Amino acid sequence: MSSIRFYNARILTMKDGFEVIDNGVLTTDGARVAYVGAASGEPKERKYDREIDAKGNLLMPGFKNAHTHSGMTFLRSFADDLPLDRWLNEAIFPREARLSEDGIYWSTKLAVMEYLTSGITACFDMYLKPYAIAKATEECGFRCVQVGGMNNFSQSIEEQEEWYDRLNGNNPLSSYIFGYHAEYTCSKELLESLSALAHRYNAPVWGHNSETASEVEGCKERYGMTPTELADSIGLFDNGGGGYHCVYLSDNDIEIFRKHGLYIVTNPGSNTKLASGIAPVSRYIKAGIGLAIGTDGPASNNCLDMFREMFLVTGLAKLHDKDASSLDGNDVLYMATVGGARAMGLKDSDTLSEGKYADLIMIDMSKPEMQPVNNITKNIVYSGSKADVKMTMVAGKILYEDGRFHIGEDPEIIIREVDKVIGAMR
């Protein structure tokens, strides 16, 4: 296991708010952080495999992309400018049905490359063929929490239980959580079976929830309840979990989320592009609900960029509330890092703290958009971009540095293989 020492760094640990340590030192011992703090408090000198002069650049926890469909990179820019129902039923579902395990493997690796360039150190992935996804992310050294996307057409209860048993506890980079695609693609009987499975394992459940107004109205017509109320009525959230999108939650839905300690993952880029609506994020914060941010998939958002998502979260919230002070940039940065880690169950990847995983990024503070440093966290949220990401490290291994990938695969091969995947679909 290698060890690395960063020195002359600014360090935002996110452990005790947003205070930045100047002239800081961070060391790793294998996959975990060994020391983080002021240079004056560093333990006695030891030898490291590599020492990196940060030159005043910022070290901080990596972003957690808390809602993704990584394997959908093969459909980037393939079915744009369609309403959600036509986008799914006419363009996406028919091609996904023809997608091989090998296709998902290569398409996932392409997504990992993009995550790393955006400072993303983990994703919360809902897609097909979980073994292929785990193989691709583990080979790259990337952290991935998978969630079931069960519906009436794929991913049975028996398969979810198998994946839960086989994908948890074997590799620290991989884990699996129960989930369903959405209420409108699942029968009530199927959701009840998932609830029973989650109760057997005392496990959380996740799913798309109230993404569009028509989704909510359709559920009310079928059951006289919102998607959240239906899930609550069958005990689906008794052991926690949460929902993706959550654009149209009622007062009672919000209370159900608060009561069960559920998380909401907001996806402003996707919701904007598909005209789904603007989630009332500031309202959820006031209700005490845990929040995280996701890009959604590269077929609905196209761009897997956490900087763009952070700006959209705060910008759309201000527009929605007609109040420029309604959502503070620091709250958004917390959602993109600590909030995402905790929503995904990554309790050892949330902050830069001794003993936790060394899942971190370096932001280049010499870039014009990062100067002057009147407020370093607001610079990240309001003026930062993925071009400012100098390095991305996962579990103590540098996977991306100064434009170069260290993921055990030639990027040109990955791109060529994904081109073959989409070529077979045309």
Could you explain how this protein is built, in words?
- With about 425 residues, the protein is of the alpha/beta class.
- It is about 35% helix and about 20% strand.
- It has 14 helices and 17 strands.
- Strands 1, 2, 3, 4, 5, 14, 15, 16 and 17 form a 9-stranded mixed β-sheet that branches.
- Helix 5 links the parallel strand 9 and strand 10 (about 205-210).
- Helix 11 (about 305-320) crosses helix 12 (about 330-345) and helix 12 (about 330-345) packs across helix 13.
- The longest helix is centred in the N-terminal third of the chain and has 17 residues, at about 100-115.
- The chain is globular.
- The protein starts with a strand and ends with a helix.
- The mean pLDDT is about 95.
SSE topology:
Blueprint: E1 4-12, E2 20-29, E3 32-38, E4 50-53, E5 58-61, E6 63-68, H1 84-96, H2 101-117, E7 120-125, H3 130-140, E8 143-147, H4 157-167, E9 174-180, H5 188-201, E10 205-209, H6 213-223, H7 227-233, E11 241-245, H8 251-260, E12 263-266, H9 268-273, H10 281-286, E13 290-293, H11 306-321, H12 329-343, E14 360-363, H13 376-383, E15 389-394, E16 397-401, E17 404-405, H14 411-423
Parallel strand pairs: 1-4, 1-5, 6-7, 7-8, 8-9, 9-10, 10-11, 11-12, 12-13
Antiparallel strand pairs: 1-2, 2-3, 5-14, 14-15, 15-16, 16-17
Helix pairs in contact: 2-3, 2-14, 11-12, 12-13
In brief, what are we looking at here?
This protein is α/β, with parallel strands linked by helices and about 425 residues long.
